[in-house]
C-alpha cells in the first residue's frame, strides 16, 4: 500500500502559478487576523525533502510551490491483509462500470496522513490529489488535528483557492480537539472518482466537522459529484455556509448529527438527491435559531465566472 502524506505543520503554506507575485488578500470572517508567515521571506523548495523540512520546522514560513510535488512511492510501501467492505462486494455484483473502495486498517488510524498541527495557518492556491483514492482509509487531504496530540483546539486557519480531488477519505476534517476560526473560501471540491464507496463515481467522504469548540465557515465554494458528508457536522461544531454551489450529489449533502449546528444562507443546490440527512436530536433548536436570521434568496453561481480552486489570486 502506498501512502501519500501531506503534513502541514508550518506557520504558512502557499503556492502560486507562473510569475505572479504573492497575493493572499485578507482572511475574512472567523479567520480574521490570520497572517500565516507574515513578513517572513518566501522560500521555494525544489525537492520533497526540502519541502518536508520547511513544513516541519518551527520557523514562521511563507512556502511557495512552483512545481508539482509528487509524494507517491516516496513514503515506503507495505503489503498486508486488508478487508473488503460489503459496499465494495455489492458494487462488484452490480457490474455497472464503477469501482468500489477497499479498506486497509492502519496502525495509529489516520493521524499520520494529511496532518495539520499549528495555529495561524494559510493554505492557498494548491491542488491536492491522488491520495490513495482506492482505499476508504487512504488518507485525508487536510486533517486539522489540534495541538498537544489532539488535546487543544487550534485557532485561525484559512483555506482559500484550493482544489481537492481523488482522495481516499475526507477532503477536509477537523478532529475532536476542534479548530476555532476556520474559513474555507473559493475552493473546488471535485468528487469525480474511479473508486466510489457508493458505486456511482461520486465521492462519499467529503467534509467532517467535529469538536466541541469548532467554528467553521464555508464561503463561495464549489462542491460537486459527491454522495454524502457534504458536510457531516457533529460534536457541538458550529458551521456557517454562505453563497456556495452544490452540484450533482447522488446521496445527501448535509449530515447534521447530535449537537451539530448549521446556518445556511444564500446557497444553491442543483441535482442533489437529498439536501439534508439529520437525526432528531439535531432539530432541537432549529426554530429558535432560525428566528434570528433573515437569509438572502439563493442564486445559482456560475462556475465560469467564479474563480474556484487553483488559479490567479485576487489582490482584494
UniProtKB/TrEMBL annotation:
Q: State its role.
A: Pectinolytic enzymes consist of four classes of enzymes: pectin lyase, polygalacturonase, pectin methylesterase and rhamnogalacturonase. Among pectinolytic enzymes, pectin lyase is the most important in depolymerization of pectin, since it cleaves internal glycosidic bonds of highly methylated pectins.
The uppermost taxa in this organism's lineage are: Eukaryota, Sar, Stramenopiles, Oomycota, Peronosporomycetes
E.C. number, please?
4.2.2.10
The signal peptide, as residue positions, is: 1-21
Write down what this protein is called.
pectin lyase
Q: Name one GO molecular function term.
A: pectin lyase activity
* Record's keyword annotation contains Hydrolase: no
Checking PANTHER family in the record gives:
PECTATE LYASE 18-RELATED, PECTIN LYASE F-RELATED
| UniProt keywords, alphabetically | Disulfide bond, Glycoprotein, Lyase, Signal
The main enzyme category here is lyase
Q: Which reaction does it catalyse?
A: Eliminative cleavage of (1->4)-alpha-D-galacturonan methyl ester to give oligosaccharides with 4-deoxy-6-O-methyl-alpha-D-galact-4-enuronosyl groups at their non-reducing ends
Domain named Pectate lyase: which ranges? Answer: 52-275
